[in-house]
Specification:
Layout (H helix, E strand, L loop, with lengths): L4 E2 L4 E6 L5 E7 L9 H11 L16 E3 L3 E3 L5 E3 L4 E6 L21 H8 L15 H14 L4 E9 L2 E2 L20 H16 L6 E8 L13 H10 L4 E6 L10 H4 L3 E3 L5 E3 L7 E2 L2 E2 L4 E7 L9 E4 L5 E4 L10 H27 L2
Antiparallel strand pairs: 1-2, 2-3, 3-7, 4-7, 5-6, 8-9, 8-10, 10-16, 11-16, 12-13, 14-15, 17-18
Helix pairs in contact: 1-3, 1-7, 3-7, 5-7
Length: 362
């Protein structure tokens, strides 16, 4: 078992640390003949990269991706996948490791510092090493390739809650997501979040968020019963993202408050001879298998533990002390988690597309 690899047929292995010379990933199982350019991958990395507004860490990383393997020019002059492993490289250029010198022996409360030390007896204190959200750039790059494997499927994400403040779903507009720094589908709520997060940012604190990812165009039949469920793998994928503490599919936890009549997604026959569901409490998945409706997954991201407020902790020698985390941090890590959630959904769907094709032949 590898702790750095995700997926079954479409497999992604990431490597590298936050303050090392580079990060990257290796993708196995990508079918041959798919046209892919570095520029296409870059579009998605640019949505995740830091320093794009005052609401994210001011670390300046261009996140320029290099394709090292798995591609070759076809008869039409296009760079296409060969079926071999695809290796992607992203160099780190703006590390400020000295920012972490004061906490190298201390454990940040709410952070993986303590558990990494307890498990391995060594940890990279410079930004958290492998526990840093810097690693998620690799996932976004892999997700860009996964999207090419599942043509006809559109994967989109949005932030639907910051702290206690939720979007108004009656004003939901996907086009608004690209026009504000929060990936928010509700322009009015996005405006309110600006002042709210400014206050948190200036106080040196942080806040959590909820992200929703929707995959449209997923045909019925992807997934499998019991231990190969589509929603099982989506939940695992989202829980693997740094700082995620909760995942739900469709109506999720709120389904516990519904009656059987309210929760049932009633079915009729559409004019085209295909089934039509009257609602989507199931989030597009029943019995672990896609229904043909939109696949909807939601996850909650905790507030970052790197804050300026002094907190009680211990050091690696067992001494009680206080800690203040200086440096450049996201006041709401949920913002940049939106493209990461999209990428993980795309990777799972690409994997299940290939598994479905292998099982039933289409």
């Amino acid at each position: 078992m590898s702790h750095n690899t995700f997926g079954h047929l479409f497999r992604v292995t990431t490597w590298g640390e936050s303050h090392g010379p580079a990060i990257g990933c290796v993708i196995d199982g990508c079918p041959p003949g798919i046209p892919i350019t570095a520029a296409e991958i870059q579009v998605f990395l640019d949505r995740r990269k830091p320093g794009q507004s005052r609401f994210t860490t001011q670390r300046r990383e261009p996140d320029e991706v290099e394709i090292l393997s798995g591609m070759f020019e076809d008869d039409k002059g296009r760079q296409v996948t060969t079926g071999a492993s695809i290796s992607l490289l992203i160099k780190n250029v703006d590390q400020r490791s000295k920012d972490y010198g004061e906490i190298k022996d201390k454990f940040r409360p709410g952070h993986a510092d303590f558990t990494y030390w307890e498990k391995y007896g060594i940890r990279d204190y410079r930004g958290g090493g492998r526990s840093s959200a810097r690693e998620t750039a690799c996932r976004v790059a892999a997700g860009a390739i996964a999207r090419k494997v599942i043509p006809g499927v559109a994967v989109r994400g949005a932030m639907v809650q910051m702290g206690p403040h939720k979007v108004d779903r009656s004003r939901w507009d996907w086009e608004a997501v690209a026009s504000n720094p929060f990936f928010c589908p509700d322009p009015e709520t996005a405006h309110h979040w600006e002042g709210y997060l400014d206050g948190i940012r200036k106080s040196g604190s942080s806040i959590g968020a909820v992200i929703e990812v929707v995959a449209e165009g997923v045909p019925p039949g992807w997934g499998a019963p019991l231990y190969g469920k589509l929603d099982q793998d989506l939940a695992s994928a989202m829980m693997s993202i740094n700082a995620v503490k909760s995942v739900e599919i469709g109506t999720g936890l709120a389904a516990a408050e519904l009656s059987g009549e309210e929760n049932a997604d009633e079915i009729r026959m559409g004019p085209d001879g295909h089934p039509v569901f009257m609602s989507n409490h199931a989030g597009g998945i029943l019995g672990g298998i896609s229904t043909g409706q939109d696949v909807v997954v939601r996850f909650a991201v905790k507030p970052t533990s790197s804050i300026l407020s002094p907190k009680q902790t211990i050091d690696r020698h067992g001494h009680e002390t206080e800690i203040i985390t200086k440096g450049r941090h996201d006041p709401c890590v949920g913002i940049r988690a939106v493209p990461v959630g999209e990428a993980m959904a795309a990777i799972v769907l690409a994997d299940h597309f290939l598994r479905h094709r292998g099982q039933v032949g289409s």
